[in-house]
Amino acid sequence: MSPGSVKAPVIAVVGPSGVGKDSLMEALLERIPGLVRQRRIITRAPELGGEDYDAVTEDRFAALCVAPGFALHWEAHGLRYAIPRDIDELRNRASGVLVNLSRKVLLEAEAAFGTLVILSVTATPEVLAERLMTRGREDRAEIERRLARAATPMPAGLSQVIEIDNSGQLEEAVQAAETALMPWLQPERV
Ligand SMILES: Nc1ncnc2c1ncn2[C@@H]1O[C@H](COP(=O)(O)OP(=O)(O)O)[C@@H](O)[C@H]1O
Ligand SMILES: O=P(O)(O)OC[C@H]1O[C@H](OP(=O)(O)OP(=O)(O)O)[C@H](O)[C@@H]1O
């Protein structure tokens, strides 16, 4: 098998709202050669900041779900999220593909992607509350709902879960994640 025929790993970054998933992904993209991020399709209003996403209406989401179909999709926070099938092509030309997933779709993701490395990002409830207030993307009621969901357990039976504590400095979490990911990356695509 030639090196180019091996698909890059899908690297799922998961954890409660406000834990630092987007911040960690942005830092990893700057540091790791050949690492890319898969854009998500979300039924969220456009330009709310944070990640770069394709904003669609509920109707458009439903239509895309039928054709061309999604690699993965789920519902959370009153929104619908999807990973487009383009991710397959991205895996042919990257050292790794980062994607922000719901914890509840991880077993399905493992079945869909094969090589799935999961970065499970954690922080204390107090830290989460403070960060969500600082980020300011959601109103207070929505922040309360997100905090109530924070303790969602990881599904049992996942094969590759790496826990990353982001309670402290972001730089420490980035360093830990980079070290843990190194053995999984496709070095010939840097
Ligand atoms: N280690 C950290 N220390 C301080 N602030 C952080 C840290 N990690 C993330 N943040 C901040 O916390 C807020 C939430 O981070 P974000 O990356 O949007 O989280 P998530 O994507 O998990 O919801 C943002 O304002 C971000 O700048
Ligand atoms: O089932 P859970 O593991 O709790 O995850 C639910 C949703 O929360 C996050 O969304 P989003 O990135 O929109 O929100 P966040 O940045 O506040 O985490 C994550 O990407 C999932 O779509």
TrEMBL record:
EC number, UniProt record: 2.7.4.23
EC top class, as a word: transferase
Entry-linked InterPro entries: GK/Ca_channel_bsu, Guanylate_kin-like_dom, P-loop_NTPase, PhnN
Reactions catalysed, as given in the entry: alpha-D-ribose 1,5-bisphosphate + ATP = 5-phospho-alpha-D-ribose 1-diphosphate + ADP
Coiled coil: none
One GO MF term attached to the UniProt entry: ribose 1,5-bisphosphate phosphokinase activity
Pathway: Metabolic intermediate biosynthesis; 5-phospho-alpha-D-ribose 1-diphosphate biosynthesis; 5-phospho-alpha-D-ribose 1-diphosphate from D-ribose 5-phosphate (route II): step 3/3
Keyword Heme: no
Keyword Hydrolase set for record: no
Domain Guanylate kinase-like: 8-182
Binding-site positions, ATP: 15-22
Domain of life: Bacteria
Keyword terms: ATP-binding, Nucleotide-binding, Transferase
Family: Belongs to the ribose 1,5-bisphosphokinase family.
Function noted in UniProt: Catalyzes the phosphorylation of ribose 1,5-bisphosphate to 5-phospho-D-ribosyl alpha-1-diphosphate (PRPP).
Family matches, as NCBIfam families: phosphon_PhnN
Protein name as annotated: Ribose 1,5-bisphosphate phosphokinase PhnN
Source organism: Phaeobacter piscinae
